[in-house]
Amino acid sequence: MPVASTSSTNQKHSHVDILILGAGPTGLGAARKLTKQNNQNWLMIDAADRAGGMAVTERDEKGFLWDMGGHVIHSHFDAFNDAINSHNDWVYPQRGGWVRVENAWCPTPIQRHLGNLKKGEQICQEINEIQSKGVSMADQEAKNLGEYFSSTFGPTLNDIFFTPFNSKQWAWPLDKLNHTWTSLRAGSKAANVPKPKSVVTSSDQPDDISNFPYPRLGTGDLWQSVARALPADKQRYNTYVTSIDLDEHTVTLDNGETVSYGHCISSLPLSVSIELVNAAKPNAAIPISLKPLLKHSSTTVVGLGFDGPLPKELEGKTWVFGADADVSFHRCTILTNFSPSLSEGENGSGSRWSVMFETASSEHRQIDIRPDVLAKKHLAELRRWGAVKEDQEPISTWSRHLQLGYPIPFLERDEVLLSDDNSSGIIQRFEKFGFVQRGRFGGWRYESSNQDYAFVQGYEAVDLIQTGAQESIYWPGRADKVTLPAAPKSKSIQSPTTPSEVASAAGTQCLLPNANETNGHGNQEHYKQNGGSLVHAQ
Ligand SMILES: Cc1cc2nc3c(=O)[nH]c(=O)nc-3n(C[C@H](O)[C@H](O)[C@H](O)COP(=O)(O)OP(=O)(O)OC[C@H]3O[C@@H](n4cnc5c(N)ncnc54)[C@H](O)[C@@H]3O)c2cc1C
């Protein structure tokens, strides 16, 4: 039996060897690895009503489908490729990244299309000067992201694009951010920020117009397929973790049930896990005072759906990066160009189109993020582009506020997560208890937490637990060796049952996610009360 339960008291208790918290890409990666091994004793728990985490897709009342922000699948790993092959409904849109700058269009990357900019000659001169000094991007010794941009691209391009755009995207002062993510991306050969071209050439198309795979019905549909390939009775949704007792290797759920574990792989946001540890025992081994050290931004996603054919101004565009400081969003995704099915509605209703805008905010960027206010601004911008007529209104306006939008790569981040003494970093503190925190906010490393990276983080965490194999993806070149404690002896077991029996006895649901439902998270109010507020409707 995979999970055992005791019911000698009113409270249900069960035990698993590996407990997976969170059924986003990270949790699903761990679950996939364990499923391949057969007969492993594990359970995956998530507060949402389905798998996918932040990579879910919602259908609104008018039938438009919305991801939680534009999601592009990059694939660098065999284990990830193998998993996504369980999905068979793909489209292959062509990349089309554009920058909206100085009230005009510039193909991406902007630093390689200087001829498209009014001050292209001047920018080119500045870049030539920088490059003639023999300073290459690789050996820049910039102390922070702001310095990195100005010393790589020169003052003019920095003023026109890099500073205003990145200040909006990160919602954090650039002199407080590190820049290692710009040139690094584990597993990928391409740098995140390509080198500038020191000649003034213009172009009417972006450098990269390759095709990319996208699930026809949205990102969430892919993860539903991945979850369906896992044993249904080891997945529990609509189930909130309300406290974590690290000493006892036990979590408590919102129905009062407890689950003990040998080891835990958690993709719950690190800040949430710290709260839940302190909910179990105040003054716990991981003090609540560590939580504010973790910096994040929030993202407000607003989708606008329209009747009629896609305007010609948006043809060939998949992303528009809003550079100008007076434009609130940083990225607009033309969803219809990802997959026409996102806009068509359930019955394939005629010609419609949809776009989605992301706006970041934080304690450093306190802007009005009420969805109706943002929607008006975005509509005005579409009108400025000539894509929407003055008398045309959207037939659907959808929005979600992601309280945790981006894990910020703040300057002190690495020391906060991993300390030189090998024990006082937040990640290390959890690991000492056999509790492995990984994933986008679970591990708090922006540069290794896209869907494919997150998935492989979960996958590798299983190896770490089972064999001690050091991971390659969460933290490439991590200095300390991760040694997890052995699993404690499990509690005495009285009446073995399956997880679904445990769940139904306790009044919770054990759901195999349904491919036809795309409504995202469940009881968000409860979610918030329990410190797990990742996303809520505004
Ligand atoms: C705006 C935006 C744009 C993005 N764009 C891209 C992109 O283009 N390409 C790409 O590859 N990736 C993109 N991503 C990242 C992608 O969404 C993440 O890689 C992925 O979701 C991270 O997976 P995860 O499993 O680590 O975390 P999550 O997906 O956040 O999963 C964590 C899970 O924990 C659950 N949880 C939290 N608290 C509790 C609790 N108390 N009890 C039980 N369960 C709980 C949540 O419900 C959630 O399902 C984007 C993300 C955002 C926000």
Automatic annotation (TrEMBL):
Any one GO MF annotation of this record: oxidoreductase activity
InterPro entries referenced in this protein's UniProt entry, alphabetically: Amino_oxidase, FAD/NAD-bd_sf
Residue ranges of every copy of the Amine oxidase domain listed in the record: 26-397
Region (Disordered), start-end ranges: 512-538
Any Pfam family: Amino_oxidase
PANTHER family attached to this UniProt entry: AMINE OXIDASE DOMAIN-CONTAINING PROTEIN, PHYTOENE DESATURASE
Protein name from the UniProt record: FAD/NAD(P)-binding domain-containing protein
Natural source organism: Meira miltonrushii
